[in-house]
Design brief:
The chain is mostly helical. It is built from 16 helices and no strands. The termini are far apart.
């Protein structure tokens, strides 16, 4: 009977320091025995695998200056990093290829504004750079008032402008849930869906279309819609 007991968190913390269960058992026999008693072996194996993948992805990403090169030459690790939600860590040292902007520069620009909409109005390019390089959520922390946690209401024109920053409904809902929910509640999602930006690398036919202006022009239907309305 083992006299020393360990919490689940202690076992996982000890496990992820190693590359395999065998290494874990050899380095921490007492903890490993407790893991087997509690039935946590599979949980520790999963944690080890995930942490090992994180280390591999971060090590690989460190060799590249641009996110596009990381994606091109390390696609498997790139995809794994996205699935694990660590792309912001992988790209923190990189530069945006199109603008040569760094994460620090994006964060500084965000810090000049009270929320995302204010940031969008003043500098839409840096907002899109932050999204393209997975810095968006980290940059949000530098705004004086996090728009994702606020209860403010947006106009249709403002929501259209926010939607233009994203490539899909899923990306929009993840990064800016407040405006997405308002669009859904007001049945504006179909109108917003046609505004999603498309990366040139993913679809060379389309160009990126970051928001260029804010105002009543966003509320005016296109000519063909006006003709139908009449």
């Amino acid at each position: 009977m083992i006299s020393i007991q360990f919490t689940y968190e202690q076992c996982i913390t000890a496990a992820i320091k190693h590359d395999s269960l065998n290494d874990f058992e050899e380095a921490n026999p007492d903890i490993f025995k407790w893991v087997k008693i509690k039935g946590w072996k599979s949980k520790c194996a999963d944690a080890i695998r995930i942490e090992k993948t994180k280390r591999e992805a971060l090590k690989a990403a460190a060799r590249y200056k641009y996110i596009g090169d990381f994606r091109k030459y390390e696609l498997k690790l790139y995809d794994k990093a996205r699935n694990l939600g660590i792309m912001n860590q992988c790209t923190a040292h990189m530069l945006d290829r199109k603008t040569c902007m760094s994460f620090e520069e994006c964060a500084q620009k965000a810090h000049q504004h009270k929320d995302v909409l204010d940031w969008l109005k003043s500098d839409p390019e840096s907002v899109w750079v932050s999204i393209r390089n997975f810095w968006y959520k980290d940059c949000l922390e530098f705004t004086s008032e996090s728009i994702d946690l606020s209860s403010r209401t947006y106009t249709f024109g403002e929501i259209i402008s926010i939607a233009e920053c994203f490539k899909s409904k899923a990306q929009w809902e993840q990064h800016h849930p407040r405006s997405f929910d308002l669009a859904s509640d007001n049945f504006w999602l179909d109108s917003c869906e046609t505004k999603f930006a498309v990366d040139k690398k993913e679809d060379p036919v389309e160009n990126l279309t970051p928001p260029k202006s804010f105002g009543l022009e966003k509320l005016i239907p296109k000519r063909k819609h006006v003709r139908n309305a009449l």
